Amino acid sequence: MIFDVNIIKAPVAVATKPRSGKEVCTSVYASCHSIGIAGAPKFGVKTDWTPRIKRGIARFSQSGNLGVGAMPPKGTCITCSDDELKAAIEHMTK
Hints:
The chain has 4 helices and no strands.
């Protein structure tokens, strides 16, 4: 029996473009941050975000990754990359 080894190919990893901060916020974070569920800071309300931003973006990002208060780690976005989380934070705090 002869097999053509060129027929069986290893799967190729397809690079996907990271989602924008707006896409992540709309698809994942809007349920809490649009209306401030459980004290979540609301989109576009600078006074909600100012105390968090004053602590520094590194600490702010760490809180987002680890979870804080009622917010679970990554705000339930377990598939979000670090870049997507950063983009979401930047979008929410505008």
